[in-house]
């Protein structure tokens, strides 16, 4: 514990705690020499594990260490939801819609319906 008698003492204690005893000033420090305690790991729920396993293939190889290991039984299991949705959905025969707001259909006058333009 450091007593707050002077700012210099607190400053040195802070730098020593973060960067180690070999670094004396902030100018010698770099982000690579930071010594922080690791956050304790959490137990993930089954829902979270299933979600992560579905996304596992898209994670770059160098980032896989940040994620929990996925059991082979979950990784190799077929995706039942995707298979069911593929079977139910049929390809649409309609052409693609144009981007933007849909055009308004012009209303036509019914026979014997007076127009507002006729009143003036």
From TrEMBL:
Biased composition (Polar residues): 109-120
Basic residues bias: start-end ranges: 94-104
Highest taxon of source: Eukaryota
Protein name: Uncharacterized protein
Positions of region (Disordered): 78-120
Phylogenetic lineage: Eukaryota, Sar, Stramenopiles, Oomycota, Peronosporomycetes
């Amino acid at each position: 514990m450091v007593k707050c008698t002077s700012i210099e003492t607190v400053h040195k204690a802070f730098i020593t705690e973060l960067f180690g005893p070999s670094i004396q000033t902030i100018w010698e420090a770099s982000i690579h020499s930071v010594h922080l305690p690791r956050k304790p790991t959490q137990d993930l729920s089954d829902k979270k594990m299933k979600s992560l396993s579905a996304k596992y293939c898209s994670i770059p190889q160098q980032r896989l260490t940040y994620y929990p290991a996925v059991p082979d039984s979950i990784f190799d299991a077929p995706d039942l939801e995707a298979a069911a949705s593929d079977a139910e959905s049929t390809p649409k025969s309609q052409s693609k819609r144009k981007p933007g707001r849909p055009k308004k259909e012009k209303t036509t006058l019914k026979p014997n319906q007076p127009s507002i333009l006729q009143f003036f």
